[in-house]
Amino acid sequence: MVEDVATDSPRRAKNPEVAGVLLAAGGGRRLGGRPKALLEHRGRPLIEHAMRSLRNGGCGPLHVVLGAAAEEVQARADLTGCEVSVNPGWEEGMGSSLRLGLAALNATGADAALVLLVDQPGIGAEAVARVRLAYRSRTSLAAAAYGGERSHPVLFGADRWADIAAAAVGDQGARTYLREHRDAITLVECSDVAEAYDIDTSQDLRHLE
C-alpha cells in the first residue's frame, strides 16, 4: 500500500514520540576497512549528516548504535544530543545492531522507532519526516519507497519491537520480518525528495561530496 501521508492529517495520531535509531556499526569491509560512520561528506563525518536527518525530520529521542572504531567515531564526530550504544558483536551483522537499538528504547516510552542506516546520505530530513508521519498506532509498520520499491528509512511501532528483534539475525536486519508482514506495511513514496543508494564499495564513494 502506497500512502500520501502529507494529505492524510485527519487520521494522523496526535503527538506520537517517534525515536530515531541510526545503525552505524559497520566496518566498511568492501571499503578496505574504513568505518562508514567516519567517511567524510561535505566536510564532516557521515554519521553527523544521518543524525541531522533524523533530528530535522522530527524524531526524538535519538539513539545511535556504533561498532567498528567506536572510540574513534565518538572522538571525531559530534553526537551531541544522542544516546550511544556500542555493539560488541557488530561483525555478526546488522541484525545485532538493530536488536541493540530497539532494546535501548524500551525504557524511553517511545511509540515507534524510525530506523536509518548511516551509509545512505541521499536520504535526508524530508524523507524521514514523511515516513514519521505514517505513524498511526503502536502497531504501525511503514517504510519509504522509491519508485514503489521498499527501502529506508523504516518505521516500527513499539508493539512490534520484540518480534522484530527476535527475527533480526545475521546481516538481514528486519528484512525477514518485513517480508513476512508486507501486507501490513504502509509504503511512503519518497523518490521526489531522496535517493536510497548505499555507500558500499569504492565506486560508491562518488556520491560523497
Please give a structural write-up:
With 209 residues, the chain is an alpha/beta fold. The chain contains six helices and nine strands; from the N terminus they run E-E-E-H-E-H-E-H-E-H-E-E-H-H-E. The strands form two sheets. It has a seven-stranded mixed sheet with strand order 5-4-1-6-8-7-9, sandwiched between helices. Helix 2 (70-76) links the parallel strand 4 (62-66) and strand 5. Helix 3 packs antiparallel against helix 5 (161-167). The longest helix has 11 residues, at 46-56. The protein is globular and about 40 Å long.
Q: Which short descriptors sum up this protein?
A:
single chain; 209 residues; alpha/beta; two-stranded antiparallel sheet; 6 helices; 9 strands; 24% helix
Topology:
Elements: E1 18-24, E2 40-41, E3 44-45, H1 46-56, E4 62-66, H2 70-76, E5 82-86, H3 94-104, E6 112-117, H4 125-132, E7 141-146, E8 149-157, H5 161-167, H6 175-180, E9 186-189
Parallel strand pairs: 1-4, 1-6, 4-5, 7-9
Antiparallel strand pairs: 2-3, 6-8, 7-8
Helix pairs in contact: 1-4, 3-5
